[in-house]
């Protein structure tokens, strides 16, 4: 079992560039394909970006070219560099496996507003 603690969110102005972090517990983190998900108010949770155990990445169309996912298996960490944020990126952001194999963490709130 792997558990997650997300951090790095907050109130960000449009166009801002925060970096989210996901700290994973457990010794098997490196073997899993991982992803960042988000859930906006009144909407279902959706996959934002994924990264395989080998480091290949993929992105939802609505963040392609703006967000970058990365991982450091030695540190059991995953990151989401967010650039050119828009108000519609406002959501709680979570990390989990792809597919979602594990319990959800508390997530980190990202609010994009001027």
Q: What keywords describe this structure?
A:
globular, six-stranded mixed sheet, 114 residues, mainly beta, four-stranded antiparallel sheet
How do the strands line up in the largest sheet? 2-10-9-4-5-6
- Oligomeric state of shown chains: single chain
**Percentage beta strand:** over 45%
Helical proportion, percent range: under 10%
Query: Separation of termini?
Result: 39 Å
Q: Supply the helix-strand structural class.
A: mainly beta
Give a verbal description of the structure.
- The structure is a single chain.
- By secondary structure, the protein is mostly beta strands.
- It has strands at 4-7, 10-12, 19-24, 34-39, 46-51, 57-59, 67-72, 77-82, 91-97, 108-112.
- The strands form 2 sheets. A 6-stranded mixed β-sheet has the order 2-10-9-4-5-6, with no helix packed on it.
- Strand 4 (34-39) and strand 5 form a beta hairpin.
- It is globular.
- The mean pLDDT is 96.
